[in-house]
Amino acid sequence: MTRRGAAVVGLGLTEMSVRPGGEATQLAVAAVCAALADAGLARADVDGLLVGSSQGVRPDRVGVALARQAGFGDLRVLEHVEIKGATTVAMVEHAARAVCAGAARAVVCVFADAPLRERGTAGSTYARSGGNTGVRGLERACGVLGTVPTYALLAARWLHVTGGTPDDLCAVAVSARAWAMDNPAAVQRAPLDAEAYRASPVIAAPLRRLDCARPVNGAAAVVVTADPGIGLARRVQVLGSGSVHPVRRRRAGAESWFGGGRRAVEDALVSAGVRHCDVDVLELYDPFTVVTLHLLEEYGFCQPGHAGPLAREGGIGPAGRLPTNTGGGQLSGFYLQGMTPLVEAVVQLREEGAGRQVPGARTALVGGIGGRVDHHACLVLAAA
Amino acid sequence: MPTRADWLLSEELAPSTGGQLAPLYAAAAQGRLALPFCGRCGLPLELEQQVCDGCEDRRVVWRATAARGAVHAVTVVHRPEPGLVLAAEPYVVADVELDGGHRLVLTSVRPLAHPPAIGDPVAIAFRQLGGVAVPAFDPIPPDPHPEAPR
């Protein structure tokens, strides 16, 4: 859907911490304050708030109560958006729709998460959530704890159907790290080569620890408006958006995880009036290396079977022909779900990427997925 | 009656046998694999599916289905979640395509030294986890020579 006029005019990040500390609500408030300062707005100027939180019923989950906690007054738009990992990208689409329709003047979108606790790792937090009922309960009773085993199955299947090898996964991890080295917000910035990758422990084959996103305690927020009078920083236009929620039936003979996502990208590109080849930077949801490869093909940025070779040739890395996840993504940057690719797109289009800036980046595609690649939300953003 | 400990997981992960999957656990307790089908057109349904995507009928019938299939995807899990995973060695999880058309993500019925490959045939058997029978896969050895007559 075309959203001419809507723009991201404010960006706020907290520190991305790999240590326990901070509650999600506190982090969300901090990110909102930073985004408002970036946009030069007072709370009274804001009449919309969209809140995204990590999935699962957790006591610290951020919700619509954030409006009160973050000091806002009366709002016209207030929602807790939940489309699993696709939430954040979809939030911007919702915000753009609201400001273009006149339902709100300025909408803040915020996502916060704090999976790192004093007791246990983030991996344990995920492994211990999910309950014992329904399909999830059955899977947990079969040792599918947390998200990694499921994505390991996806990765195994991916390598099987594409004829790829773990070297393809390695190339994505190395590329992401190369980008992250010049991103001050990235939590993993030490140089990474194939040898160091292969020394990383296997979590669930073929996925090693370095194939998995790095969870953080942190938050990010953006301000969306169609009012040309709002904003101090360089505007980032929301040119187009698209979402699709494929229902792939898990039956014998069908693929469990692949297919059905292309429409989100096509709709976003068409509504923006741009083509695949116009995209200067590609910012994709990358909770695991294999997802980057999958989305490159699913979204039509390379031919089927070519994502692995593209990554191995350095094509998605710095100086590559298709700069992808230019802040290190969720793998080496920070895992804040859809905020990770969204934030990096805004940084690039504002030309604030410093050492990792892609020269001449004018158009970005942001892709967010949710569930087991069951939800896709895409945005086309452009420098004003 | 005391229950045997599962080879893999803590009893705290025993699934709830009520709710939508109750027919699966009831059949499993008797050593049978039962899964949902459309009551009208017979399409195999997903475990929580309540309306047939083929004919839109709402009748769901759980019935016995062939306890046999092939591996769609497979992983070996090396990270043992402390307190939940009891096995000392890495364990196998497979996405299994059943001959009857369903797909289930399962672990193996016993520890495996080697994981099956994608496409390998498996049978479905049952583990006992906290007194609940849970389906599990059992690789069918690729033996080119038929067994000697007994």
CATH-defined superfamily of the domain at 7-118 and 215-225 in chain A: Thiolase/Chalcone synthase
Query: What name does CATH use for the topology of the domain at 7-118 and 215-225 in chain A?
Result: Peroxisomal Thiolase, Chain A, domain 1
What is the number of helices of chain A?
Answer: 13
- What is the average of the pLDDT values of chain A? 95
Largest interface: A-B, 43 and 50 residues
- Helix percent band of chain A: 25-40%
Structural class of chain B: mainly beta
Extract low-pLDDT stretches of chain B: none
Structural class of chain A, please? alpha/beta
Structural commentary:
- The complex is a heterodimer of chains A (384) and B (150).
- Chain A is 33% helix and 18% strand.
- Chain A is α/β, with parallel strands linked by helices and 384 residues long.
- Chain A has a domain at 7-118 and 215-225: 3-Layer(aba) Sandwich (Peroxisomal Thiolase, Chain A, domain 1), CATH 3.40.47.10.
- In chain A, the strands form two sheets. Chain A has a nine-stranded mixed β-sheet with strand order 3-2-4-7-1-8-11-10-9. Chain A has a two-stranded antiparallel sheet with strand order 5-6.
- In chain A, α7 packs across α10 (289-298).
- The two termini of chain A are 19 Å apart.
- Chain B is mainly β.
- The model of chain B has no long low-confidence stretch (mean pLDDT 94).
- Chains A and B meet through α4, α5, α6 and β5 of A and β3, β4, β5 and β7 of B.
